[in-house]
Amino acid sequence: MPTSASFVQHSLELLSGVGPVRSRPMFGGHGLSLNGISIGIIDDDRLYLRVDDLTRPQFEEAGAQPFTYPSKKGPMVMKSYWSLPDEAVDDPDVALKWGRLAEEASLRGEAAKRKAAPSASKAPVGKAAGKRAPSSPKAGQDKGAPSKSASKRAPLPAQGKAKSAAKTSTAKQRSAAGKAKSAVKTSGAKQRSAAGKAKSAAKTSAAR
Q1: DSSP strand E in 7-154: where?
Q2: Of 107, 92, 133, whose CA–CA distance to 54 is shortest?
Q3: Are 67 and 82 in contact (CB under 8 A)?
Q4: Cα–Cα distance between 105 and 48 in angstroms, integer?
Q5: Across the strands, what pairs with 174?
Q6: Is the dihedral of CA 138, 143, 148, 150 positive or negative?
Q7: What pLDDT, in 10s, does the model give residues 78-113?
Q8: Strands 66-69, 37-42: parallel, antiparallel or unpaired by DSSP?
Q9: Could you tell me the pTM of the whole model?
Q10: Can you tell me the distance from the alpha carbon of 165 to that of 147, in angstroms, rounded to the nearest whole number?
Q11: Residues whose CB falls within 8 Å of the CB of residue 154, separated by 6 or more in sequence, listed in order
Q12: What is the dihedral of CA 170, 172, 175, 180, to 10 degrees?
């Protein structure tokens, strides 16, 4: 039998002392929540409140029953919701006690969920996480061939020897050219000196 709107309103009035309890349609019945946390279920014009291991014994002692719903495999029992004891069905003052127990059980359940599933952002990050992984070779590039940047930073030994030999050869050539120029200058000076002596001898002979 579907839940009547009048019973939903009656349940909200019974639990009004607990806080701003709200209802919403759910699976043919209604769910009850307080500040966004589920504290009860209404099904077939009967109110069920949330319990846990600490509060369940009190509901059992008061003659309450767990929420049961039909399924293809037979009746299924939801042990986390128990019926409001008969003594509180029409008494808001008595219902307040059971509503408080339901609120406490709900808060403990939510706290346990948060503790069991810590935020991934709190997980420690290894030192290696901040290091960049070496880039993989581009398509078509031989894995064994050195990269362009590597060849610039560290030339191959053969290339280094060739460059060194070229520098030595250039230095020798420059030294030989310098010696040749010096020899030309010395030869020119000797020739000019000999010409000067010849002129001097000719003048002396003419004077005699």
Answers
A1: 21-26, 29-34, 37-42, 47-50, 66-69, 76-83
A2: 107
A3: yes
A4: 13
A5: none
A6: positive
A7: 999 999 999 999 999 999 999 999 999 999 999 998
A8: unpaired
A9: 0.56
A10: 26
A11: none
A12: -100
